[in-house]
Every structure is written in C-alpha cells, then in structure tokens.
Task: structure prediction
Amino acid sequence: MVWVKLVSTSLITLIMIYMIYYSLVSIKAYRGNFKIAPHHKARTKFLVLIPAVNEEAVINIPVDDLKNQKYPKKLFDVYVIADHCTDKTAMIAKKHGAKVITTEMGLNVKRHGVGKSNTLDYGLHYLGLNEWNKYKYVVVIDSDNNVASNFLQRLNDYAVEFSEPEAIQVHLDSKQLNTL
Result:
C-alpha cells in the first residue's frame, strides 16, 4: 500500500513541476521583447488566395483593399477561389480586379478535404506547382476581411528582416456582414 502512495505522489509531483515549468515559459513569452521590423525595399513575391463560397455581399472588401496596397503590383497576385458558388461571387471579384478560379475551371482536379481547406487545396492544384512556386509566400485571407494598405509591405519587412522564415503568421480583424 505504501508503494502505491509513493508512486502516485511522485507522479503528481512530476505533473505539477511540468505544469509550473510550462506556465513560466508561457508567461516569459508574453513578456518577451518583440522586435519590430524596420522598413525594407519591396522584394518578396506573394500569392494571395481568398477562398469564397457564395460571398457576393463581401468579396469586394478584401479584393479592393488588396488592389489598393502600397506595394508594387508586380510582386503579388490576388486569386479568389469561387468554390461551388451559386451567386455572383466570381463575377464581382473579377470586376474588382482579382484573378478568379471557379469550380468549373478545373473539373479534372481531384478534391481533398472539406470546407476551406478543400477550397484552398483545389485552388493550389488548379494553379499547379509551377505557378505557385513563383511566389515566396502564400497568403490566405478570408472573404470578409479588411486588409490594411501596408499589409504586404509589412509582411515583406518581416520576411527580409528575419531572413525569409518558412512561415509568417499574422492576425487580421474581420469585418462581418450584418445580415439581420
């Protein structure tokens, strides 16, 4: 009986040490000194993908914001992937300056996954490896997001400052359409 109490007490102690350690690591990360990247000359190529299913009411928001980027137009392309849309999403996106991929364009493209990941997978397969390998980063933006006019420039700044990391994660606040 003493043996069981000793083992259980040891395990509980180890778990507590583990929890305390990771709590301290998390707190330290939040208090860390984050480096703000200075401005760098635009040089990074971005492939911007906007997956959309029946988003005619909001698709113009990110497309217009991206069209008005303070970043050289030759260094980024905006594609709206209008997946199984039954509305005018594709037409509106094209009218506002995006390149559009529709479900009907790639009937021979095998589909994988469900939801947004399926739409992105479809769009990337449709573009093909040779096309999207022309870009350094793939940026995914929701169809109802506002995008700051310096968004791509700031991504470029961080990519250059930190020697082109494998991935850069950013946060965008969403603008949701009020349908009530």
